[in-house]
Design brief:
- There is one protein chain.
- The protein is mostly beta strands.
- About 0% of the residues lie in helices and about 50% in strands.
- The protein has strands at about 5-10, 15, 60-65, 70-75, 75-80, 85-95, 95-100, 105-110, 120-125, 130, 135-140, 145-150, 155-165, 165-175, 180-185, 190-195, 200-205, 215, 215-220, 230-235, 240-245, 250, 260, 270-275, 280-285, 290-295, 300-305, 310-315, 330-335, 340-345, 350-355, 360-365, 375-380, 380-385, 395-400, 405-410, 415-420, 420-425.
- The strands form nine sheets. Strands 3, 6, 7, 8, 9 and 10 form a six-stranded antiparallel β-sheet that branches. Strands 4-5-38-37-36 form a five-stranded antiparallel β-sheet, with no helix packed on it. Strands 11-12-13-14-18 form a five-stranded mixed β-sheet, with no helix packed on it.
Length: about 425
């Protein structure tokens, strides 16, 4: 937890905030420099930032898409959605860039770069799913982009197939219960791992047939109340989980106890990710550190120190061993509550660059598909585009609201999930 951090509120005022930033509580600004206006709280209770959600309920219904576009800055087009866009994921289908975004509704977007006017080529399909009082908490396409798994606050995972630009419900996993805040496919798209606020960690069979629309858990570990905030597959057989419990656990299919328990963090572990070679696991924590652990040794080999506040997100560059760019060195990026982005040399466990431009907590970082660029999103309402080689700031995109999630497609489109909207960013002028 961190206090007394300077950041920009959604109404554009700078405040030396006296309240805590955490992934486990809704942040409310408090400080002398801010006007007497409460920041609109979309959520109530439970985890914050990308893991935050509200107390709502309802069933899935088909609904008409409601879209209003407006350019809030050069090369930024905002699409209005109901609620916070906590997740946005790309896939390629029939030559189109298809984006799924989750808020109170699940929307499927066709994002094309056929002309220079991006806003004319981003449309919502007719297949918009309204979850009513159970907003989306996380979603992910499978490895070949044919199926989409969507987790909601009601504790149910719904799996859809994508065909001719439409989403068809294949089936669902689980019963109504505590909200799921972490979800990942394995590489073969046969299993799904989920983590919940109650601490339940579940591996699901994800093969549906016409006569079987519901699957039972392959493995369920009942939690002790310590929320599981992230999961990530090392292979088709090993998956890691982390969260409030501070310990990172690696699970193997067919075993009911973890095969690795990696200790070292002294506070909540917010995110984990395996590197492209699937041998190194990066983790970031409220203890202000980033750690690198190895699967073979089952322990931390580097503690990366530099952040002065909780670290909320990290991302491996698509470079180094096991990647599409094996001749380029592996780099890890992290972003935290201090408003800083760090680039790390994972071989030596040292900092390569400190990028200190944001004036609010950094909630998301994402490398470009070639690893040469990096985007970072912040509560200060901006998305910054960086050059990885020298850390230079190419451009700052103003989105008008705090940034909750980021993604970068193979077709060079950046999308930011905002507090209430979705921002599509054109990089044409920066390429």
């Amino acid at each position: 937890m961190a206090k007394n951090e300077s950041h920009i509120t959604d109404d554009g005022h700078e405040i030396e905030c006296e309240e805590e930033f955490s992934l486990l509580a809704t942040h409310k600004c408090k400080g002398k420099k801010v006007k007497k206006r409460k920041r609109k709280d979309i959520y109530s209770g439970a985890p914050k930032s990308k893991k935050e959600f509200g107390n709502r309920g309802g069933d899935v219904e088909m609904g008409m898409a409601m879209v209003e576009t407006g350019v809030v800055g050069q090369d930024v087009t905002v699409y209005k959605q109901a609620g916070c866009v906590c997740a946005c994921e790309f896939t390629e289908s029939d030559g189109k860039v298809v984006l799924a975004s989750g808020s109170d509704v699940l929307s499927l977007w066709d994002i094309s770069l056929r002309s220079s006017d991006l806003s004319k080529n981003a449309d919502v399909s007719e297949d918009t799913h309204d979850f009513g009082q159970h907003p989306v908490t996380c979603l992910q396409w499978n490895s070949n982009g044919t199926q989409l798994a969507v987790a909601c606050r009601d504790g149910i995972v719904r799996v859809y197939s994508l065909s001719e630009g439409k989403l068809m419900l294949l089936g669902q996993l689980g019963e109504r219960g505590t909200p799921i805040v972490a979800l990942k496919w394995n590489l073969r798209s046969t299993k799904l791992a989920t983590g919940s606020v109650s601490g339940d960690f579940v591996i699901w069979n994800a093969k549906f047939s016409d006569d079987k629309k519901k699957e039972e858990p392959f493995l369920r570990i009942v939690g002790d109340g310590a929320s599981v905030l992230d999961v990530d597959w090392r292979s088709n057989f090993h998956v890691a989980s982390c969260g409030v419990g501070k310990i990172i656990r690696v699970w193997e299919l067919g075993k009911e106890t973890p095969v690795r328990e990696i200790e070292g963090h002294k506070d909540v572990v917010n995110a984990i990710q395996w590197d492209p070679s699937h041998s190194l696991l990066a983790s970031c924590s409220d203890d202000k550190t980033v750690k690198i652990s190895t699967f073979n040794q089952g322990k931390c080999v580097h503690t990366l120190i530099g952040h002065s506040a909780p670290v909320y997100d990290l991302h491996w560059s698509p470079t180094g061993p096991g990647s599409k760019n094996p001749l380029n060195a592996a780099v890890l990026a992290s972003g935290g509550g201090d408003g800083c982005v760090f680039l790390w040399d994972v071989d030596n466990g040292t900092s390569l660059l400190k990028l200190a431009v944001h004036r609010g907590p950094v909630t998301a970082v994402k490398f470009s598909p070639d690893g040469k660029k990096l985007v970072s999103g912040s509560f200060d309402t901006t998305v910054n585009l960086w050059t990885v080689s020298d850390g230079s700031l190419e451009k700052s995109y103003h989105c008008g609201q705090s940034v909750e999630s980021l993604n970068w497609s193979e077709s060079n489109v950046v999308v930011a999930g905002l507090r209430e909207n979705l921002a599509v960013i054109s990089l044409k002028s920066s390429s």
